[in-house]
Design brief:
The chain is mainly β and about 270 residues long. About 10% of the residues lie in helices and about 65% in strands. The chain has helices spanning about 5-25, 30, and strands at about 35-40, 45-55, 60-65, 75-85, 90-105, 110, 115, 120-140, 145-165, 170-190, 195-205, 210-225, 230-245, 250-265. The protein has a ten-stranded antiparallel beta barrel. A two-stranded antiparallel sheet has the order 6-7. The longest helix is centred in the N-terminal third of the chain and has 20 residues, at about 5-25. It is elongated, with a radius of gyration of 25 Å.
């Protein structure tokens, strides 16, 4: 017994500092759980200009907020999902949709899809847009409370844009554009309840029918007061410059979305 007690005491003394050091590292579920979900309200301030040319080459760049009276800010739903399928690998997806319409008597001539709408005409317009961001990432630096990595993915942009006045009919086009992006991301646990994260997407492209560039920034502050339920405040921005050239038409879009995002999150 006299021999065993010193060995037990020594083991306790050696193990205690290690246990305390490990306990001091923040353990935030958003950095350690396999599955993460978030839903919220995104309130972006938007700026939109677009041009639709017919096969005759008739078209002009139109500012949809100023010329057609569309709202510049609107709350829209946003959803995000993340799956950690390895020690350093992650799959992410995020979605938001912004549908707007305008009704305005225009003050100058506008040409869209080969049709000229003259000044003094009441023009009905719509600009429906959605974005699905998907990516696969690898964290080259990974600890329990922090990670930094890179990823590759797509912003899949969907457009449904149209103008209508009198007997002109609905001059509309629908375009689906998969826009590839490279990303860099970081996530850090401040405490067991608080964590911050950031992501930057960027790509300049020219492939198939598409030409342009895309930039996106996301910054998150995540508060997890309960094990399976948390809340967050974030900032999102998305900038798209895109030209799509098809056999019967060409379209150009210059868009920006910037604003806060409020969300609820859960993970397990």
């Amino acid at each position: 017994m006299r021999i065993g007690i010193p060995f037990i005491g020594a083991a306790l003394l050696l193990s205690t500092p290690l246990a305390r050091a490990d306990d001091a590292i923040p353990n935030h579920p958003a950095l350690t759980d396999k599955f993460y979900f978030a839903v919220g309200a995104f309130v972006p301030k938007t700026s939109t200009s677009a041009e639709l040319d017919s096969n005759l080459g008739l078209g002009a760049n139109i500012d949809f907020e100023r010329a057609l009276g569309m709202t510049t800010q609107k709350a829209v739903p946003d959803a995000e999902f993340r799956w950690r399928f390895g020690e350093r690998w992650r799959l992410e997806a995020e979605y938001f949709e912004l549908n707007r319409s305008g009704d305005k008597v225009i003050s100058q001539d506008l040409t869209w899809n080969g049709i000229t709408f003259t000044a003094g005409t009441e023009v009905l317009s719509r600009f429906n847009f959605s974005d699905v961001r998907t990516s696969v990432g690898y964290s080259f630096f990974k600890r329990k409370d922090k990670e930094v990595g890179v990823s590759f993915g797509f912003h899949i942009a969907s457009y449904d844009v149209g103008l209508q006045a009198g007997n002109s009919g609905d001059q509309a086009k629908k375009i689906l554009a998969p826009l590839p992006v490279f990303s860099a991301y970081g996530q850090f646990a401040l405490t067991d309840e608080w964590a911050v994260g950031a992501r930057l997407d960027r790509f300049v492209m020219s492939y198939n029918d598409y030409d342009g560039n895309i930039s996106s920034v996301g910054v998150d502050l995540n508060y997890r007061p309960f094990r399976y339920l948390g809340f967050g405040l974030a900032y999102r921005s998305l900038f798209i410059v895109l030209k799509a050239t098809k056999p019967d038409f060409s379209a150009q879009f210059n868009q920006s979305f910037q604003g806060p995002l409020l969300y609820m999150s859960s993970s397990f």
